[in-house]
From TrEMBL:
Listed CDD domains: HATPase_UhpB-NarQ-NarX-like
Any one GO molecular-function label of the UniProt entry: kinase activity
Domain Histidine kinase/HSP90-like ATPase: 282-366
Record key words, sorted: Kinase, Membrane, Transferase, Transmembrane, Transmembrane helix, Two-component regulatory system
Gene3D superfamilies named among the record's database cross-references: 1.20.5.1930, Histidine kinase-like ATPase, C-terminal domain
Protein name: Histidine kinase
Species, as recorded: Stenotrophomonas oahuensis
Transmembrane segments: 12-30, 36-55, 67-95, 101-121, 130-150
All copies of domain Signal transduction histidine kinase subgroup 3 dimerisation and phosphoacceptor, residue ranges: 182-243
SUPFAM superfamilies named in the record: ATPase domain of HSP90 chaperone/DNA topoisomerase II/histidine kinase
Length: 367
């Protein structure tokens, strides 16, 4: 399902669209010039409402869209002050603002909109303009609180999913680290115990072979040869267990991204990449986690590409997304936290924008 359709059929958007359609039915059929103008204004309101979520986040286009929505709704009320359904558009507008803007902004906007509503009703000759404005202000407050709590619940659910993903990824990393520690312990045990005793047995067999009678010498030499081969096999096992395969980053990263419907994380890790230090692996995990959060919250991205590969004496991490951001990248607490976490393991971070307006993070960490 495309992001446009997904946003369109979300509960609040769908309720808003149905309300706008219902208001349109109260206008009647467009047979005259003025009536056509009213339908055109309502069409503009609906189009702005539908495309709003696909405008760049925190951009002037969203602010312009909100202003046009308010002006269009007030213009319709002014053109038809006696049609009691048209102020419902302002209820939709305030609920829409409460979903995207802070509470103080919504309150000030509601005050300004209701003052304009009162003036439009009064100049248009509507009966009891103050009473009508007060009633619709109550509807607006109810709709704004509903939208606000719905948004708060959504953010809380996202935060819970993020924490759960963090725990799953950390658990995967810790499990892999524990397996590596167990492998190293077993390698040491084999080397120190079995290897030592086999070496001692081989030396004793070699001494016995030199003193044995010709009849038993062949058998002693055969046992000595077998012990030598067994010692070589144990050394190979110990060496393979000591080989640095590195921590399983891919599993931890997928666990980090799985609970989120958006953005989609596409991971590529070079075959030669080895990260054995748990602190470095944890720094990579937190870097990707913050990049995913920024891509979803600030860039409205659908896809994040992660590439981890070796570069000279370090590991290079490239993270790109297809989001839309302002021309200037502002470093908030998230980016600052990235830099501090990387600095703790002697890493570096660079920021840039992609050609399409997304974020491009480049980090370098010691292998």
């Amino acid at each position: 399902m495309s992001s446009f359709l997904r946003d369109l059929i979300s509960p609040l958007s769908l309720a808003g669209l149905l309300t706008i359609v219902a208001v349109g039915l109260s206008l009647g059929v467009a047979t005259q010039g003025e009536q056509t103008l009213r339908w055109a204004a309502l069409g503009v309101f609906m189009v702005l409402f539908v495309i709003y979520d696909h405008l760049p986040v925190r951009s002037r286009w969203r602010l312009v869209s909100d202003v046009l929505l308010a002006l269009t709704a007030l213009a319709l009320v002014w053109l038809e002050p006696r049609v009691g359904t048209l102020p419902v558009l302002l209820v939709v507008l305030i609920a829409h603002l409460a979903e995207h803007w802070p509470a103080r902004t919504v309150l000030l906007s509601a005050l300004a909109v209701n003052v304009c509503l009162y003036l439009a009703l009064r100049t248009g000759g509507a009966n009891h303009p103050f009473l009508v404005t007060t009633i619709y202000a109550g509807f607006q407050a109810f709709a704004a609180l509903t939208a606000h709590y719905a948004r708060s619940s959504e953010l809380a659910r996202e935060a819970l999913a993020r924490v759960n993903a963090d725990l799953l990824a950390t658990r995967a990393l810790l499990a892999d680290s524990a397996r590596d520690a167990e492998r190293l312990r077993l390698a040491r045990e084999l080397h120190d115990v079995a290897g030592h005793k086999l070496t001692a047995m081989r030396l004793n067999l070699r001494a016995l072979a030199s003193d044995a009678t010709p009849a038993t010498r062949e058998r002693v030499q055969l046992v000595e040869q077998l012990s030598a081969e067994l010692l070589g096999d144990i050394r190979q096992v110990v060496q393979s267990m000591r080989d640095e395969r590195g921590l399983d980053l891919a599993t931890a990263l997928q666990a980090l991204a799985t609970p989120f419907p958006r953005p989609d994380l596409r991971v590529h890790i070079g075959e030669q990449v080895r990260i054995a230090n748990p602190l470095v692996a944890d720094a990579v995990l937190r870097l990707v986690q913050e990049a995913l959060t920024n891509a979803a919250r600030h860039g409205d991205a659908d896809t994040v590409w992660l590439n981890i590969d070796n570069e000279e004496h370090c590991v290079r991490i490239d993270i790109r997304d297809d989001g839309q951001r302002a021309e200037r990248i502002r470093e908030g607490n998230g980016i600052t936290g990235m830099r501090e976490r990387l600095a703790a393991v002697h890493g570096q971070l660079e920021l840039a924008r992609t050609d399409s307006g997304g974020m491009h993070l480049t980090a370098r960490l010691p292998a």
